[in-house]
Amino acid sequence: MVQKYQSPVRVYKHPFELIMAAYERRFPTCPLIPMFVDSDTVNEFRSEDGAIHVIERRCKLDIDAPRLLKKIAGVDYVYFIQKNSLNSRERTLHIEAHNETFSNRVIINEHCCYSVHPENEDWTCFEQSASLDIKSFFGFESTVEKIAMKQYTSNIKKGKEIIEYYLRQLEEEGITFVPRWTPPAAAPSLETSLSCKKPAASLTVVVPDPALKEGLSSEPLSTPSGAPEPTAGTPDDKLDADYIKRYLGDLTPLQESCLIRLRQWLQETHKGKIPKDEHILRFLRARDFNIDKARETMCQSLTWRKQHQVDYILDTWRPPQVLQDYYAGGWHHHDKDGRPLYVLRLGQMDTKGLVRALGEEALLRYVLSINEEGLRRCEENTKVFGRPISSWTCLVDLEGLNMRHLWRPGVKALLRIIEVVEANYPETLGRLLILRAPRVFPVLWTLVSPFIDDNTRRKFLIYAGNDYQGPGGLLDYIDKEIIPDFLSGECMCEVPEGGLVPKSLYRTAEELENEDLKLWTETIYQSASVFKGAPHEILIQIVDASSVITWDFDVCKGDIVFNIYHSKRSPQPPKKDSLGAHSITSPGGNNVQLIDRVWQLGRDYSMVESPLICKEGESVQGSHVTRWPGFYILQWKFHSTPACAATSLPRVDDVLASLQVSSHKCKVMYYTEVIGSEDFRGSMTSLESSHSGFSQLSAATTSSSQSHSSSTISRWRFC
After folding, report:
1. Whole-angstrom Cα distance, residue 255 to residue 96?
2. From CA 113, how far away is CA 127, in angstroms rounded?
3. What's the pLDDT score for residue 237?
4. Among 189-193, 485-489, 557-561, 639-643, which is the least confidently predicted range?
5. Is the whole-model pTM more than 0.70?
6. How many Å apart are CA 650 and CA 645, to the nearest integer?
7. What is the average per-residue pLDDT within 90-115?
8. pLDDT above 90 (res 236)
9. Cβ of 532: how many Cβ atoms within 10 Å?
10. What angle do CA 285, 366, 697 make, to 5 degrees?
């Protein structure tokens, strides 16, 4: 595999001619580079006018390698051929180097270029690239590669220091100015004069916009009067080393190379807008600077962003009022490192209510908008604090978290959101502070942690009870003045307090499916209509005994009876009920019957749960541990109000109700899942504990549990 290196553009704030005078002092040997033993001139050429000077040297290097490896290779020194081509007219120096030793086994090529800064003719730019290809080396290919890369990166770091060392040496000798080359003629022509000032055509440096405003270093950066402002993102755009340090942080030479190479590839292959440098760097960090892996994930993310118009989500999408009122999260100042701080009061949030009222689509879009806002705040804080800030801190308060938060469809939605965020916003979480973690938290952590990247998990700090108030707690990361009031701080936090989402805001699966923008198509709930004489039934086939059937449903309209049956033989294929004389279609949900009219209870199928009467507005969660394999039928049946027991005559209300077809219709929204019994312990605990209510936020709660054949049914009614 060929290893490649590409440097950023390094800027010397000195004229080209002075830099060349300093550079020539590196030869024939340089005490600042211990491995550079000596050099001999092999060939030399100088043009008649003195503008072109080409010199070829044979350089002797003492590589820092194990003596055993040198003995096996049979050499003490490694020789390189270096060709320097100086064009004083164009004010450029091109350096080409390749290895002479082991050239049939190892191929090393390097190219460097000194040229005039395109926007300031008194500054000099330096750029270099190199490649390493090890064909074979006595079985030590990997070792040689590591040694070569280590030596090369070490010399790269010293490159600028060496030039600056010789610049100081020249200054001590009183040399602070070297005149530019002029042609031999006494009166140079206009064309010649212009050519002396022409910048190098091979290098174009465009400083990103933030650098223009604030400068690349302590010295101000000036642009020629009337010159157009550079535009980032053009194909010729290159990164300046000072810009990288100021806005992206301290990177090793190889990390800088990975960033530049991936950025160049994106510019060449992706038309239109490419990610900002900070975001490209996040993908590289998430893949340990493996360019191929980072490129693959970034391309997938770019396609996803374009497909779903994520770049415009902050401008074009407004969160529904339900989210603004009941989503207990928001931005709150910054931490001690300058990272934006996001506060999430998860324990006070009705996750089930939000999913039922909004669906996963709106929740996902809201989380995406939070992440996009986080990226924007990182850019702002980078400018405010004068140092690179590329991630944010999240403070999660779990006060009030209980088993109701482990509602399985809600957890599934959470895992899906985590998956999307991990794939498209890597390395954006700088630190996660989890406060007041209750006993139920380990259950939630067990469900969620496998979906979180290892690098992200290492950023989690978890505090139980009031441990966050002690040493090593919240004060180590957040200033006392901005600790939220609900954590015994002095700062008023404007994050919504959450609370139960009113059931009047719940929507049907069909309504949720009508969202204009679909970021994923999974639908957790299904909707069904139940009529008098026409129950709705679903079939679940069980192969392994002791499997667990779980369900969650809401009675949206009318009263129903919920039954569970078992049959050894499969019912006939489901058929849509014509509803007999009613001839009514079901716009709000489907209606399917599976139990044949000729089947007899006790002979063809059996009841495995006692009937459960569910009133309008109730939410029901439950489970059944199966005893036998076969076919299980879950049935929702219309519940008729019994007639008066004192007389056999029907009541007037019953007669009037029978004349109104609409009174014979019920509607349910349901979700079912089959899981192995060994995987159900956490869910069983949640169902048995759920009647304790939704933290302090729950209103009057009634619960009813019926057990038969190792089953559990739990029910809540919220006022």
Report:
1. 23
2. 5
3. 62
4. 189-193
5. no
6. 10
7. 93
8. no
9. 19
10. 115
Q: Which of 91, 89, 129 is nearest to 112 (CA)?
A: 129
DSSP 319-361: --HHHHHH--EEEEEE-TTS-EEEEE-GGGB-HHHHHHHHHHH
Q: What share of the chain is helix, strand, coil (3-state, %, to 5)?
A: 35, 25, 40
Strand positions, DSSP E, 514-649: 526-531, 536-542, 548-557, 560-567, 575-576, 592-593, 606-607, 612-614, 619-625, 630-638
pLDDT (0 to 100) of residue 213:
35
pLDDT at 680 over 80: no
3-state secondary structure of 69: helix
Task: Kindly state the tokens that stand for 677.
Answer: 């019994």
Is the peptide bond prior to 28 cis by the omega test (within 30 degrees of 0)? yes
3-state secondary structure 273-324: CCCCHHHHHHHHHHCCCCHHHHHHHHHHHHHHHHHHCHHHHHHHCCCCHHHH
Could you tell me which of 408, 366, 295 has the C-alpha nearest to residue 684? 408
- For residues 446 and 293, what is the distance between their CA atoms, to the nearest angstrom? 28
Say which residue the tokens 């005078």 belong to: 21
pLDDT digits (tens, 9 = 90+) for 402-438: 777 777 777 888 888 888 999 999 999 999 999 988 8
Q: Does pLDDT of 262 surpass 50?
A: yes
Helices 253-269 & 141-172, crossing angle to 10 degrees? 100
- How many other CB atoms are found less than 10 A from the CB of residue 675? 14
Strand partners, 536: 636
Element containing residue 711 per DSSP (H, E): strand 711-716
The total of other beta-carbon atoms located within 10 Å of residue 230's CB is 19
Number of CB atoms found within 10 A of residue 490's CB:
10
CB within 8 A of 609, min separation 6: which ones? 563, 564, 624, 706, 708, 709, 711, 713
Two tokens, residue 624: 């059944």
Amino acid present at 541: Q
pLDDT tens-digit map of 328-375: 999 999 999 999 999 999 989 988 889 888 888 889 899 999 999 999
Q: What is the pLDDT of residue 380?
A: 95
